[in-house]
What does this fold into?
Amino acid sequence: MRTCNTEETTKPAIFAHRGARLEFPENTMSAFRAAYDLGADGIELDLQRTADGVLVICHDENLERLAGVNVDLKDLTWRQLSELNAGHAFPESPEERFPSLEEFLSWFAWTSLTVNIEIKNSVYPFPLIESEVLYAIDQYKLRDRVIISSFSLESVVEMKHLAPDLSCAFLFKRHPYRALNAALEYGLDALHPHYANTFVPGFVSRCRRHNIAVRLWTVNSPRVTRFAIRQGIDTLITDDPAQALRIRDEWTMRRS
Ligand code: G3P
Ligand code: CA
It folds into this structure.
């Protein structure tokens, strides 16, 4: 199992889901910088590809919610995408751009954060995106601080094949034991389950026995945060990293 740096020293690591998205438009450089300033251990982000082949950070396939334009990201060129306001949902804030992976990595390389790059290829497949992502990571020599995940098992298996030393995780919502069997069959490092799976009897301890890291999403309630900490979950992916860090600190203080 390949863990991330923080998981080896502090548990659980706290990852900001799409950056600090409570205060800034999600998946923008402002949200990522704010997550860093808050003291998060890592960032989770979503990756797609434009019509002319630029890897860009954005959650939704269709841009209506995020940019107020009813168009799919995959059908726009990088230049067309750059003209849209990624902060449409935050009308009181300055305009934001959708960052390219390159822009993100050039900033991230100078931090000590871990990043979980979720490849968003379940709706549109983005053929060969795995090798393009790997190329970008290798340009900055960042394999030890990157975790790749996807709801597409095929995609994470391909990434693990291309880069056996990269931490690769299968994302899922239901059927935890089916996911665990797949992780073991394909030699994956981790599972990223919806948080409800943490309540499935025996599941987390079974993962631990098999040396599979568990990173839960999206853990926003204090009750689930505390339950997950008691279970020894490796990472919590949360919309509210400040709250999760506070709860983790309280827990650590009580035990010391
Ligand atoms: O990576 C965990 C989580 O982000 C997966 O769901 O829809 O928020 O990308 P979603
Ligand atoms: Ca995601």
